[in-house]
Design a protein that fits this description.
It comes from Streptomyces glaucus. Belongs to the peptidase C56 family. By secondary structure, this protein is an alpha/beta fold. The chain is about 30% helix and about 25% strand. It contains six helices and eleven strands. The strands form three sheets. Strands 5-2-1-6-7-11-10 form a seven-stranded mixed β-sheet, sandwiched between helices. The mean pLDDT is about 95.
């Protein structure tokens, strides 16, 4: 039986932070499912850095069909979860089904990969207290408020929790996540 990985996301997620792990994990032989608030066509965004802007800019990105709604997710069927960033985590952290899903993964000590604004979701379920994490650098105060020890690095590993700052750090993020994932739930 193929090992299943869950990606939790929604509209306004950063395109690269959903699609890169989706494709990379499939390449490794994992069965990857995308869950969102509802089964629908999701509209992602592209965050980029441009001269003269104090922060990132946002443009329309790719669309992608959600395989299932959060309410349909049985976390016990999945070996790990990926939490992309973008603006989606701002509203997703209020979804009770998503909070149930993330709590289940954290309580079971299953691998969790989070990037950019994704740690807002694990913070919302009190999953960062006492842990080392990174996130989009502007979230450092939020991570500290959640009880985490923030590190500004490409990838930070704390047990089964692997975090990264943003899509430019994908290689380091997936390299570390796959190391954890292969130890806990090899694809074959």
């Amino acid at each position: 039986m193929t090992v299943k990985i869950l990606i939790v996301t929604g509209d306004a997620a950063e395109s690269l932070e959903v699609l890169y792990p989706y494709q990379r994990l499939r390449e490794e032989g994992y069965d990857v499912h995308v869950a969102a608030p509802a089964r629908k066509k999701l509209r992602f965004v592209v965050h980029d850095f441009e001269p003269g802007f104090d922060t990132y800019t946002e443009k329309p990105g790719y669309t992608w069909d959600a395989d299932l709604a959060f309410s349909e997710v049985d976390p016990g069927r999945y070996a790990a979860v990926v939490v992309p960033g973008g603006r989606a985590p701002e509203y997703l952290r209020n979804d009770p089904d998503l909070r149930r899903i993330l709590t289940s993964f954290l309580d079971a000590d299953k691998p969790v990969a989070q990037i950019c604004h994704g740690p807002l979701l694990t913070a919302a379920v009190d999953g960062l207290r006492g842990r080392r994490v990174t996130a989009y650098p502007a979230l450092e105060p939020d991570m500290r408020a959640a009880g985490a020890r923030f590190q500004d690095a490409e990838a930070v590993v704390d047990g089964t929790l692997v975090s990264s700052r943003a899509w430019p750090d994908h290689s380091a993020w997936m390299r570390e996540f796959l190391r954890v994932l292969r130890a806990k739930a090899p694809a074959t």
